[in-house]
Amino acid sequence: MNKRRLFLASTLIGAMSLGSYTIAGGHGSCKHGKKGGEYSEQRMEKKVTRMTEKLGLSAEQSEQMKAAMKSNHETVKGFREQMRTLHESMRSLNPDAADFDTQLGSLANQKGELVRQMTIAKGKKRQAMAKILTPEQ
């Protein structure tokens, strides 16, 4: 199979695997059919409620946890948008181009840096949440 056919086949398979996501909920929806913001709010509330019950959080601690989660959510949302843009750029690469390897390497480096930043953000959220808790909790 030549490079072009292989590229087209992999693109088609990728599009087919995304089909259930887009058909079920539309762009920007989760598998439950709710828009991202609404789903995130419900999920965050559920997490904070569970933490409050298990750890005995005060009302002030619960609010601080919500704030930490919201702040992280906004940060990660920006990273997800950047990741989506990178994926579109990768899909639009021409495998027959003379500088394909260079372009692909550049996009791979950008993706690696983005994953690094997302990992750091996740760690900082965990750190912020740990600071809210008392040593007993």
TrEMBL record:
An example Gene Ontology molecular-function term: unfolded protein binding
Gene3D superfamilies, per the entry = 1.20.120.1490
UniProt KW Ribosomal protein keyword: no
What keywords would UniProt list here? Periplasm, Signal
Which cellular compartments is it found in? Periplasm
Write down any Gene Ontology CC term: outer membrane-bounded periplasmic space
Tell me its family.
Answer: Belongs to the CpxP/Spy family.
Return the protein name. Zinc resistance-associated protein
Species per Swiss-Prot/TrEMBL record: uncultured Thiotrichaceae bacterium
Q: What is the lineage of its organism?
A: Bacteria, Pseudomonadati, Pseudomonadota, Gammaproteobacteria, Thiotrichales
